[in-house]
Amino acid sequence: MYLHNWEDWFHFFTGFLAFITFSAGLVLSSPSKIPILFWFSLFSPILVPLCMYSLFFSVIGALYAIGKTIMWLKNPKGQLHTFPAEIYETHEFSDGLHYESIVDSLPTYLYEKQPRDSDNTCSICKEEVQLGEVMALLPVCVHSFHKTCIDPWLITNMTCPICRCRVDQEIPREVLVFSEY
């Protein structure tokens, strides 16, 4: 008998259960003077397979859990939950830039209310920007945020919170021309 895959094991196991159930039914079907044997003979066609299936699937579940645990221990980077200390480690991106160099290179300015400013709220913290607060400008899309809000944002996301353009991409020529004025 060759049991190479789970289907073979399943068919072997169900055949074995059918044999046990049939045998128990034959042995216990004769009338008995002991009441417990009578009740057992009545319910054995249901109880024996139920217990065997429960045992079978419990063993399969335990083996699956052990396998998943071993895989998790072999690959600690594949954890679902990260601790805050791990979030603030240096992230290296595909082009070799570190987020610190990108954050440090962002242009900053002190906020002054302009007559054309209709919306003066920071999109990250949703608070109104006050006069004299330090703001950081994302050069690619020209969106600005509180410096204290955009720095933590860029640690986990290298995209603009509003338009989702990548912050580490090359600055378009239009922005360079615009910034000269």
TrEMBL record:
<feature type="transmembrane region" description="Helical">
    <location>
        <begin position="12"/>
        <end position="30"/>
    </location>
</feature>
<dbReference type="Pfam" id="PF13639">
    <property type="entry name" value="zf-RING_2"/>
</dbReference>
<keyword id="KW-0472">Membrane</keyword>
<keyword id="KW-0863">Zinc-finger</keyword>
<feature type="domain" description="RING-type">
    <location>
        <begin position="122"/>
        <end position="164"/>
    </location>
</feature>
<keyword id="KW-0862">Zinc</keyword>
<dbReference type="GO" id="GO:0008270">
    <property type="term" value="F:zinc ion binding"/>
</dbReference>
<keyword id="KW-0812">Transmembrane</keyword>
<dbReference type="GO" id="GO:0016020">
    <property type="term" value="C:membrane"/>
</dbReference>
<keyword id="KW-0479">Metal-binding</keyword>
<dbReference type="InterPro" id="IPR013083">
    <property type="entry name" value="Znf_RING/FYVE/PHD"/>
</dbReference>
<feature type="transmembrane region" description="Helical">
    <location>
        <begin position="36"/>
        <end position="66"/>
    </location>
</feature>
<protein>
    <recommendedName>
        <fullName>RING-type domain-containing protein</fullName>
    </recommendedName>
</protein>
<dbReference type="InterPro" id="IPR001841">
    <property type="entry name" value="Znf_RING"/>
</dbReference>
<keyword id="KW-1133">Transmembrane helix</keyword>
